[in-house]
Amino acid sequence: MSIDPYEILGLTKAATAGDIKQAHRKLVRTSHPDLHPNDKGAVERFKAISAAYDLLKDPKTRARYDAGEIDAQGADRPQRQYYRDYADAPDNVYQQRRGSGKSADPGDFFAEILRNRASGGGGFDFGGQSASGQDVRYRLEVPFLDAVRGAETEITLPRGSSIAVKIPRGTQDGQTLRLRGKGARGFGDGPAGDALITVTVQDHPDFRRDGDNILFTLPVSFDDAILGAKVTVPTIDGPVGLTIAPGANSGSVLRLRGRGVKRAGSTIAGDQWVELKIVVPKAPDPELCDLLRAWRESRTTDPEAVLKKGATA
User: Fold this and answer.
1) How many CB atoms lie within 10 A of CB 99?
2) Pair (220, 232) in one structural domain
3) What residues make up the domain containing 313?
4) CA pair distance 258, 264, nearest whole angstrom
5) Which of 47, 46, 58 is nearest to 21 (CA)?
């Protein structure tokens, strides 16, 4: 499957926000794993569709993607910048200090640095000049609940040391965290670079995420669907009560307000959407079967006839 979010949603870069929302709704109906249990590719398609929609529905991330600043996963693209790109910049990161005038060639300076490093030499005299250290990139796999609720963890570096990483509440899959000063050492008096950590959020067996909303499928027994019931539903912050009205159908969606994701720095949380899925026992009780047979013979409404009438209307 293509990794371009526009192609995944069947759109072009000229698509409006309404086009993106409409395409997402249509594709969810055709690729939702719960609606297509026999389609082995539905899970991967649904994940790709959700990731594409998350990136394009936000005008800021969409603009950054269109400008080439981030990739299809939302990770920052490495910028190809060299010392000459900074030579005339007012905020030059390669600061010229004592002992180097305007006529100094930065090319000679960096060539000498590289020669010294290649030869394993130490104690190089930087001539009063300095340069910021390189940013270093890492990837971190985070459990679903740690990403939505926030957590603290560590990254073990190749040399055995570690970096403490705080996962902000509401962190999204593909989001890049910046740890200032945790990258490569600078040259001379230059500051260290940053550590850029791209987060991969693990799937959860029960919850799915759509923006700040949590999606959950609730199995409902046949009798609870017919008669109604009060049930307990898991959420990312713990179980809560939910009332199922009598006559519920599979595919009905109920909302638990404020039970979704609350991002760091926000006072507003998303919702949890609970989709009902009626589960029929494999071996129904004989008395129930007799009751349903009697009901079938006495009923006056034929759902199939209603459906056919609607199709020809």
Assistant:
1) 11
2) yes
3) 204-313
4) 15
5) 58
Angle subtended at Cα 52 by Cα 69 and Cα 178, rounded to the nearest 5 degrees: 40
Q: Is residue 55 part of a domain?
A: yes
Determine the Cα–Cα distance for residues 216 and 272; give it in Å rounded to an integer.
7
Residues counted in the chain: 313
| Rounded Cα–Cα distance for residues 95 and 132 (Å) | 9
Q: At what angle do helices 59-66 and 42-57 cross, to 10 degrees?
A: 100
Contact 175, 55 (CB under 8 A): no
58: its two tokens: 């936000």
**Residue 100, domain member (yes or no):** no
The whole model's pTM is what? 0.54
3-state DSSP assignment of residue 118: helix
C-alpha to C-alpha distances, 261 to 146, 150, 170, 174, 253, nearest whole angstrom: 11, 10, 6, 16, 18
pLDDT (tens digit, 9 = 90+) per residue, 31-81?
Answer: 777 677 777 777 788 888 888 888 899 888 898 888 888 888 777 776 544
